[in-house]
Amino acid sequence: MRVYEELQRLDNLAEQVENKVKLLEQENTALKNQLLVYQKRLSDQEEALEDFKNQIKISKIVRNIPVENKASAELRGRIDDYIKEIDKIITYLSE
Predict the structure, then answer these.
(1) Widest CA span in the chain
(2) Could you write out the three-class secondary structure of the chain?
(3) Residue 59: which region, alpha, beta or left (left: phi > 0; alpha: psi -120 to 50)?
(4) CB 55 within 8 A of CB 86
(5) How far apart are alpha carbons 14 and 7 in whole angstroms?
(6) What is the spatial distance between Cα 51 and Cα 56, in angstroms, rounded to a whole number?
(7) pLDDT in tens for each of the 95 residues of the chain?
(8) What is the Cα–Cα distance from 22 to 54, expressed in whole angstroms?
(9) pTM to 2 decimals?
(10) Separation CA 41–CA 31 (nearest Å)
(11) How far apart are CA 78 and CA 91, in angstroms?
(12) What is the rounded distance in angstroms from the CA atom of residue 33 to the CA atom of residue 27?
């Protein structure tokens, strides 16, 4: 009788261990998925940051173009318009 009770106890412990392993595997899978989501989000934010850095560089270049005549003023206006369009596109893609 004592051996039977010990086997039953060990069987219960084995079942508890199995359940705990399954729960840990599920948690591990969920955490891996969450990590992938965060990595994607970080990648998107880094890309957006690079776009903003490029935009700042372009803006600095535009500001440094000397406005001597009408053609230069038009060029500056076009570049400003392009920058505004790029801003709109980046905002749209960020959503």
Answers:
(1) 105
(2) CHHHHHHHHHHHHHHHHHHHHHHHHHHHHHHHHHHHHHHHHHHHHHHHHHHHHHHHHHHHHHHHCCCCCHHHHHHHHHHHHHHHHHHHHHHHHHC
(3) alpha
(4) yes
(5) 10
(6) 9
(7) 688 888 899 999 999 999 999 999 999 999 999 999 999 999 988 888 888 888 888 777 767 766 566 667 777 778 888 888 888 888 777 76
(8) 48
(9) 0.54
(10) 15
(11) 20
(12) 10
Distances from the Cα of 53 to the Cαs of 24, 56, 58, 59, in angstroms?
A: 42, 5, 9, 10
Task: Tell me which amino acid residue 79 is.
Answer: I
The rounded distance, in Å, linking the Cα atoms of 73 and 79 is 10
The first and second tokens of residue 18, run together, are 């199995």
Which one, of 64, 60, 62, lies nearest residue 79 by Cα? 62
Cα–Cα distance measured from residue 27 to residue 62, given in angstroms and rounded to the nearest whole number: 52
